[in-house]
Write a structure and sequence with these properties.
about 625 residues; alpha/beta; GMP Synthetase, Chain A, domain 3; 7-stranded mixed β-sheet; 31 strands; globular; binds 5'-O-[(S)-butoxy(hydroxy)phosphoryl]adenosine
């Protein structure tokens, strides 16, 4: 497997990859096992938009993630599982065992009537069965839709209904630090409004008391009884959907991003090996949850397709104490460690003895994802975790992009703290100004777009191709609009400056303001609401809600609590505002548009320079908002 060994080589590979992208990606794709080779590498038209890679190629991604490794590494670990409970032994799952367990569960899916193209919703804790389940879906050609197990019953049912899932796989409960969560009860509640679901498979994890609906629900173990551990993989077209993963948008309901079998596989694999400079035999740990794209691409599909050993962690960084990550790094001798700035900032605040008592000398490469990493966190990560000898790959990408877009290459790119640095081979970023013109040269700032397709890009939004076009391909003609702003510095390094739309990145997760606003307006006394983000020490951004009530709340704290409860049950606890301010009006332009810029400034405490408020319908509301700031 070829990786890039020097910066000169990066420059050479990069320029070849953009002068002849089709040859570049065909060479990468050659390394996989295809049942039938493609006829043509790429067809594309961003105006429709239509993107197709490896046309008429036939494959099954699980043959590439599992079967093809059996000859050489049947007894090597594919997954090492680390429990939430520090005393529970690890599970070491070899490629052979993974093969057997995935095949067995694939046979279970078939016995439940799941066929190629059917959608399966997966709502599970971070246990090996979660990875096994999605691979089993891929093996039979079913489209998995993983819903993060921190989402509420309403979020779950919305997602199940949107893609009409036939089956749900869940567990009785989940452990998360000192807490346990009754997942099955949330599923039962959610399924009251889902008519497409025929069966529910329930894994036993916490042993909590649950209800099983006769004829619909079955325990995982029971379902597996008597099932063969051989299951031939379904032949898939390169462009068949592999999975749907929902992400929040700046307006309306979550978007079901659709990723494909062929292009996504090639891209997740290439970017994994290249950016981390992965070497055979290394132990790799990504701390994300498989409920997010990071877990899909960089716990499951990227590492397993590369034959790596991927660590899967059920717990949280702070339990039983703030040394948990470092204890696992020492125990499992992790070579490559990939986490999020929000976790680093939280751990950075703990006593340094939580780091220093562990031997971190196995580490070779560190990674960061989810939001811009601030310089302070970068330096702490570099100094205390990497001991100054591990490159930090600050990987910029999105649910929509499937894999890394802009990232240093470990041991190759000279690093600048807080800079995602250079595009991955095959990625062609372009900065645009708001008039729609390309900004050339260095030492410039603009809106980040991509001007050429890459194999890992999402192909559509499930059931709403028009929205896919409107959201990503309409802002700038012929370009993919990322929603992020970026600076290209004097040396050509990219630095992501943050969202330019109404999406807030909270603890590295995408939250749409519109979604939170519509949840808050469900409170009977809420008339109108505006939600903005403001900088937060640990989460990166936190949520600030300005609420107009019908009647002045008699007890503001009581009303805040009621709003929190509504958000917890409709969207889940991660969408809770840190601050709620009751106001009598919002700063609006004469045409009725809320001036979020002003609200953002007040929320972040920048009260001096609020900019021009003369265009407001009622400039007095600004004074009131400043006076009542919480
Ligand atoms: C948004 C995508 C990519 C998986 C996790 C989040 C922000 C992500 C970085 C980074 C600066 C980053 C962007 C992006 N973001 N990584 N390294 N530096 N910003 O996936 O929920 O789809 O969010 O996260 O704003 O657009 P997501």
């Amino acid at each position: 497997m070829n990786t890039i060994g020097s910066f000169d080589e990066y420059n050479k590979v990069y320029s070849e990859s953009v002068s002849n992208p089709e040859k570049f990606w065909a060479d990468e794709a050659e390394q996989f096992y295809w049942r039938k080779k493609w006829d043509k590498v790429l067809e594309w038209d961003f105006s429709k938009p239509e993107i197709k890679w490896f046309i008429n190629g036939k494959l099954n991604i699980t043959e590439n993630c599992i079967d093809r490794h059996l000859e050489k590494r049947a007894n090597e670990n594919a997954i090492i599982w680390e429990s939430n409970d520090v005393n529970e032994p690890n599970q070491f799952i070899t490629y052979q065992e993974l093969h057997d367990r995935v095949s067995r569960f694939a046979n279970v899916l078939k016995s439940k009537g799941i066929k190629k193209g059917d959608r399966v919703c997966v709502y599970m804790p971070m246990v090996p069965e979660l990875a096994i389940c999605i691979l089993a879906c891929a093996r039979v050609g079913a489209v998995h839709s993983v819903v993060f197990a921190g989402f509420s019953s309403t979020s779950l049912s919305d997602r199940i209904n949107d893609s009409e899932c036939k089956l749900v796989v869940t567990s009785d409960g989940a452990f998360r630090g000192a807490k346990s969560i009754d997942l099955k009860a949330i599923v039962d509640e959610g399924l009251k409004s889902c008519h497409s679901v025929e069966s529910v498979i329930v894994l036993k994890r916490t042993g909590s008391e649950i209800e099983m609906v006769p004829g619909r629900d079955i325990w995982w173990d029971e379902a597996e009884m008597g099932m063969s551990n051989v299951c031939p993989a379904e032949e898939m077209d390169a462009e068949d959907p592999l999975f749907i993963l929902y992400t929040s948008g700046s307006t309306g309901k979550p978007k079901g991003m659709v990723h494909t079998c062929g292009g996504y596989m090639v891209y997740a694999n290439y970017t994994f090996r290249t950016a981390f400079n992965y070497k055979e035999g290394q132990i790799y740990w990504c701390t994300a949850d498989i409920g997010w794209i990071t877990g899909h691409s960089y716990i499951v599909y990227g590492p397993l397709s590369a034959g790596a050993t991927s660590v899967m962690f059920e717990g949280v960084p702070s339990y039983p104490d703030m040394g948990r990550f470092w204890q696992v790094v020492e125990k499992l001798k992790v070579d490559i460690f990939y986490t999020a700035p929000t976790a680093i900032r939280a751990l950075q605040k703990a006593d340094i003895s939580f780091v220093d008592k562990y031997d971190l000398s196995s580490l070779k490469v560190l990674g960061s994802v989810g939001e811009p990493i601030n310089e302070e966190a970068w330096h702490w990560y570099d100094e205390h975790i990497g001991k100054g000898k591990c490159p930090i790959v600050d990987t910029w990408w999105q649910t929509e992009t499937g894999g890394f877009m802009i990232s240093p290459i470990a041991h190759v790119t000279k690093l600048k703290p807080a800079h995602a640095s250079f595009p991955m081979p095959g990625v062609q970023p372009v900065l645009m100004n708001s008039e729609g013109n390309e900004i050339e040269g260095n030492d410039v700032e603009g809106i980040l777009t991509i001007k050429y397709p890459w194999p890992g890009m999402a192909r559509t939004i499930w059931g709403d191709h028009q929205r896919f076009k409107d959201t990503y391909f309409s802002a700038f003609k012929g370009k993919y609009f990322t929603g992020d702003g970026a600076r290209r510095d004097e040396d050509g390094y990219y630095r992501i400056t943050g969202r330019v739309d109404d999406v807030i990145i909270v603890s590295g997760h995408n939250m749409g303001t519109a979604e939170i606003e519509s949840a808050i307006t469900e409170h009977e006394n809420v008339c109108e609401v505006a939600v903005v983000g403001y900088p937060h020490d640990i989460k990166g951004n936190a949520i600030y809600a300005y609420v107009i009530s019908y009647h002045k709340p008699e007890n503001e704290d009581k009303e805040r609590k009621e709003i929190y409860d509504i958000i917890s049950s409709t969207l889940g606890p991660i969408a809770k505002p840190d601050k709620i301010q009751f106001v009598s009006g919002l700063p609006k332009t004469r045409s009725g548009k809320i001036m979020r810029r002003i609200l953002r400034k007040v929320a972040s405490g920048e009260l001096e320079n609020l900019g021009d408020t003369s265009t407001l319908l009622d400039p007095n509301v600004v004074t009131e908002i400043i006076d009542g700031k919480v």
